[in-house]
Design a protein that fits this description.
By secondary structure, the protein is α+β, with helices and mostly antiparallel strands. The protein is built from 5 helices and 14 strands.
Length: 263
């Protein structure tokens, strides 16, 4: 899994206030459900990926397979590729499908991201103090803020532990529907000598069922600024929206290549 502020809801139920310890148990239940789904859901999907950064907007046709994912760039800044750009993109895909080394690197990167997302999920119940904001028959909204007793084990977890915001849990299946937050304070790297991340940076991850029992990240918005060594800008300012989900029937990257129209 890879891994945020307020939401608008219908009238909340008149449920009694839930103690923070009960809120933490709700989070533990949702984390357990997500970890179980990650281990059992081996489905593959085809979708449209719109990725926007300050300098460029790119649209991809993406296909997942048991061998990995293959993506074809189909538009830049809402314009179809020129013939020259399309030829270059097709050649990139052919070279990737023919390169075991590139595929192995992509697999290692994916495994690293998955492992990091799993570590972050497992930290959620203890990295924050939790309270229930609203409850409806369909979902529970919880607020969170940094837990002063939590000791982040890594630099990445220090950033996570500095967040405050809201999480929405779908009550059917205990699945995490959204996680939104902002940096509650500046995060210094190496006591500020190696860099910092600015207070107020935000992220928003939105997840939805794309088929019964199958949840995916459908939106991902990250806007975090900062500076690193030699004043290099390390800001992350990107928005990603994934639409048009349908099951992938391709079993290999070569099959996905043909489905993407690359011969």
């Amino acid at each position: 899994m890879a891994l945020t502020c307020g939401l608008l809801f219908a009238e909340p139920s008149e449920a009694p206030v839930v103690e923070s310890t009960s809120a933490q148990e709700l989070v533990r239940g949702a984390v357990f459900s997500e970890l179980r789904a990650n281990n059992t859901d081996k489905s593959n999907w085809r979708y449209r990926d719109q990725s926007n950064s300050p300098s460029k907007a790119e649209t991809f046709d993406a296909i997942e397979t048991p061998q990995g994912e293959l993506r074809r760039l189909i538009a830049i800044n809402s314009h179809e590729l020129t013939p020259a750009e399309d030829r270059k993109e097709k050649e990139r895909i052919r070279e990737y499908v023919d390169s075991p080394d590139e595929q192995a690197k992509a697999q290692r990167d994916g495994q690293h991201d998955d492992a990091q997302a799993e570590r972050f999920l497992k930290m959620l119940p203890d990295a924050f103090t939790w309270s229930v904001a609203t409850q409806t028959p369909e979902e529970t909204t919880l607020r969170y803020e940094p837990n002063p007793a939590f000791k982040p084990p890594t630099m990445e977890s220090r950033v996570l532990a500095a967040m405050e915001g809201e999480m929405v849990i779908a009550r059917d299946g205990d699945r995490i529907k959204s996680l939104r937050g902002k940096l509650s304070h500046e995060v210094k790297i190496g006591y500020g000598l190696l860099g910092r991340l600015d207070q107020g940076g935000t992220f928003d991850v939105e997840r939805r069922p794309v088929a019964p029992g199958h949840w995916q990240i459908v939106e991902n918005h990250v806007h975090i600024g900062g500076r690193a060594l030699l004043f290099k800008n390390i800001s992350q300012n990107a928005d990603e929206i994934k639409t048009g989900w349908k099951p992938s029937t391709d079993k290999t990257l070569a099959e996905a290549q043909r489905s993407l129209g690359v011969q």
